[in-house]
Design brief:
Strand content: under 5%
Helix content: 55-70%
Radius of gyration: 25 Å
Order of helices and strands: HHHHHHHHHHHHHHHHEHEHHEE
Number of helices: 19
Largest sheet: 4 strands, mixed
Structural class: mainly alpha
Distance between the termini: 25 Å
Shape: globular
Number of strands: 4
Low-confidence stretches: none
Strand order of the largest sheet: 2-1-4-3
Mean pLDDT: 94
Length: 448
Amino acid sequence: MLSGDADVLCNIEAGRYVIALGDFLLLKLGVRTTTDLSVTMLVTFILFAVAMEVNKRIFKRWQPEGGCLRLCYICGIHLVFLNVLFAELLMFSEYCVYYAIGYLLAALGVIRFTRRKYLSMFLLFALAASTYQYTMIYAAILIAFYVCLDHQGEFSLKASMEELVGIGACMGVGGLNLLSVKMLEKLEIIKSFGKSAGVGDVGEKARMALAHLARFLKDSDGIFPNLWLPLLFSLALAAFIIYHCAIEKKAGKLPFIFLVWLGSILLLYVIPVMQTEFSFPPRMSFCFYLVQGMTAIVACTVCREKMQKLLLACCGGYLTAHLLFSGFVVTNHFISNTLDEVYVTMMYQEILKYEKETGITVDKLAIAKDAYAPDHYLEVGYTSGQINERTLGTVTNSIVWKVTGRRFENLEIEEEIYDQHFRGKDWACFDLSQQFFIEDDTAYWCIF
């Protein structure tokens, strides 16, 4: 909202050329994705709904005719976007419509793969990766499960080659996207690649990945209660698949299904491990639910009639839990936003009072943080990564402009002033009398 060029250059440096082009064209029209957020969000939801419909078409051959299994199939196919961690994509209101475009393009690319239209598949994947690179992980997982189902879970040379071609295409397009940014950097069109990349300590990153997976299975990275619901659902699906394969004397399917599942879990961590610092925020880790949803579809294909109601209870109950806690995330988001706005308004009233009393216009704002200033308010209980992250302390000047309509020059607090007023302080609540003061034309604010 504040960037003069709508962050076009920043997106080019990150290899997100579709976003850069979209924002550039919108800027030429005099609008941005933030001009009317209600329209932006409506378009976002429509595009994600279309992407879910495309997913249904990819796996249409295995869609049950009706009854409990049909409902299980619907739960599984929709789980990728109807979950608690997906909320983080919607926290970026200026970006979320592009996330939707990226995942829709990736899903359309997978459809072209299923029809062996490899040129159009490559073009769609290239556009998706140039919107958001993690869409290639999403596409690769869809392809992995599609090939597994297409070969009825039976491992063969043909199946393995199709897996390699499909997943390799996704990884290759992602690599080409990175290479294109490096070429722009080499040609001095951009200064540097906008994202960190590097192998580093692979062992340490593997340990961090396992620790993250454990947290995820425990409580969906802090959103679910500490009841291991994701793990229990995964184990229930595994039990359904193993039991029915054993009953039907088709245990030979299990190794291939397991390899596809394990490979999909490993795919989730490719980009986090390739970054200089391991980072796996919800806007990427939500694809774990894609793996669970696809596993649920595999369970539907092997489930016998007498077990269908039990499978539906598992899938329906799990999806209902996600929808319920997504509602809690939303209500807590309102709390976080309201606190941001209230604190800014209280601060601004002090500025107006000072200006009225002294006749001096305050046009500079220096921001600092106290000893411990977390990214989330204590009053907000459902947080993970940037889900319900507060604005104060992150982009304070932006929220001040949004609430007050005034732009203040952004300054760093001088060390001497910080030492005199704020050093060593650690407030647990908002206290304007201690955290804020004004000298001449500059306001100083320490965020608790």
